[in-house]
Amino acid sequence: MERKLTCIVCPLGCELVVTIEDNNVIKVCGNTCKRGEVYAKNECTCPKRTVTSTAMCDNGSLVSVKTDSPIPKEKIYECMQIINSVTVKLPVAVGDIIVKDVFGSNIVATQNRS
Ligand code: SF4
């Protein structure tokens, strides 16, 4: 089986061709660097994404947040529900953990709010 992907690891966006052989060996072509090969193999076995969003603060304003590492793609909806359910106590600084251990990642603030 052959699958075409665009690498999303950096802005170069290499076009990748992934070949999955009968014995589940995955071969990757078109990548300019090793990160593209790793991305393609993960995308074909356990796709993950970094989630970015906003969370409500206790004064009614919003603060931007993200997962500090990629989470399984099929958990994005549940992750968004968790983000939407929290109220962030101000003040908050970039990197502060808003919610711990969400599908193997933490939700962290990506901006300062006071
Ligand atoms: S393969 Fe490497 S150079 Fe190409 S888009 Fe992916 S990370 Fe960037």
Reconstruct the topology from this structure.
Layout: E1 2-6, E2 15-20, E3 26-29, H1 34-45, E4 48-49, E5 52-57, E6 62-67, E7 71-72, H2 76-85, E8 87-88, E9 97-102, E10 105-109
Parallel strand pairs: 5-8
Antiparallel strand pairs: 1-2, 2-3, 4-7, 5-6, 6-10, 9-10
The protein binds iron/sulfur cluster (SF4).
Give a structural overview:
With 114 residues, this protein is of the alpha+beta class. The protein folds into 2 domains: 44 residues, no CATH class; 58 residues, CPE0013-like fold (Roll). The chain is built from 2 helices and 10 strands, in the order E-E-E-H-E-E-E-E-H-E-E-E. A 5-stranded mixed β-sheet has the order 8-5-6-10-9. The longest helix is centred in the middle third of the chain and has 12 residues. The radius of gyration is 18 Å and the shape is elongated. The structure holds iron/sulfur cluster.
Ligands, ions, cofactors: iron/sulfur cluster
Determine the strand fraction and express it as a percent band: 35-45%
How many distinct folded domains? 2
Instruction: Give the SSE string.
Output: EEEHEEEEHEEE
Oligomer: single chain
Q: Report helical residue fraction.
A: 10-25%
Biggest sheet strand order reads: 8-5-6-10-9
What's the overall average pLDDT, rounded?
95
CATH architecture descriptor text of the largest domain? Roll
Rounded to an integer, what's the Rg over CA atoms? Answer: 18 Å
CATH topology annotation of the largest domain: CPE0013-like fold
Shape: elongated
**N-end to C-end Cα span:** 53 Å
**Could you name the CATH class of the largest domain?**
Alpha Beta
Structural class: alpha+beta
- How would a textbook summarize the main sheet? 5 strands, mixed
Give me the number of helical elements. Answer: 2
